[in-house]
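agent> fetching stored inputs for the pyridoxal-5'-phosphate docking request
agent> found them:
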Amino acid sequence: MQYITYNISNIYKNGITAIKKESANLVSARYPVRLSGYYAALIKRPDDAIWKQCMPDTRELEDDSQCPDPLDENGLSPVPGLIHRYPDRVVLLVSNRCAVYCRFCMRKRLIGSGDAPMGEDELRNVLDYIAVHPSIHDVILSGGDPLMLDDESLSKILAGLRAIPHVAIIRIGTRVPVTLPERITPDLCRLFRNFHPLYINTHFNHPNEITEESRAACALLADAGIPLGNQTVLLKGVNDSVDTMRALMTGLLAIRVRPYYLHQMDLVQGTAHFRTSVRTGLEIIRGLRGHISGLAVPHYVIDLPGGKGKVAILPDDVEIRGNTLHLRTYTGERVTYEDIITAPQE
Ligand SMILES: *Cc1c(COP(=O)(O)O)cnc(C)c1O
Ligand code: SF4
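agent> prediction call returned; pasting tokens
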């Protein structure tokens, strides 16, 4: 199937004129630009929350302070296309294409560089690696966007993984329900049904991304028995307010998507203009917890540089002195709680 795609040479034909062409060309030479027709149509005005996520910005080129791969994913890759950081789970980079190239992407170094999906030999090596590591129970397909592969290629990868007995669950990380919802077809969902337990984590960052189309895409996936989670990146000027996050997280529950992670922006080169302070993130979590359904509150995580892993952080709402806890409620009230432990019976 052919989808409408805009790149740097034809976005101007579509009424997007609020960025200087020379600047856009300069940015896209280093960090490719790509938009789906669907996602481009969500832009209501220049510089709105959708625009900021997908349109090139010269500040991407000005940020040379950080490293392109701060999480050391290259260093944690024993075979090409596989990242093995935690003992029991691995990430496979099965595609380096996406429907939209998000300007804040943590894999900015790879995205859109060439069009090669994971080749047959590479897939074989990756499957062999997993097969000889029985500690691996959870395989996460990522990229790029795995759902940019055609059904046949996806099926090959999923079947290869399912043939390995110790792979208990398969996860797919995809932004396609948000950026190219028409890719979620009944055929694709029928294919997915053969590979359960299969989980999908999608990536909504703003309430304006919750549309009739994205709702329908998520409904098809949920109806195929796939639990849906969501990872949001905390982005300055896009979603760094309590009101926006409340609308996003409760809106996701209403389309059967369970918020999973809120990511502190990684220290990736070219993304500094999106980064908020961690304090902002903690204030947002404080504005969610207790105020909206607990189901709608994601874990706020920092993925530590050097590949040390994700750490979930919480606002400082507890102080322990002896057996007395000094707690802060969601309304801000200070309450003490006695941690009474009954002595075990002899
Ligand atoms: C995030 C991540 C995972 C998965 O972590 P969960 O907390 O289980 O979702 C696995 N491997 C790598 C390299 C990751 O970055
Ligand atoms: S869809 Fe995901 S992998 Fe692709 S550019 Fe956006 S954030 Fe990066």
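agent> quick read of the result: The pocket of pyridoxal-5'-phosphate (ligand 1) is lined by residues 83, 85-86, 89, 91, 140, 310 (CB under 6 Å).
agent> awaiting further instructions
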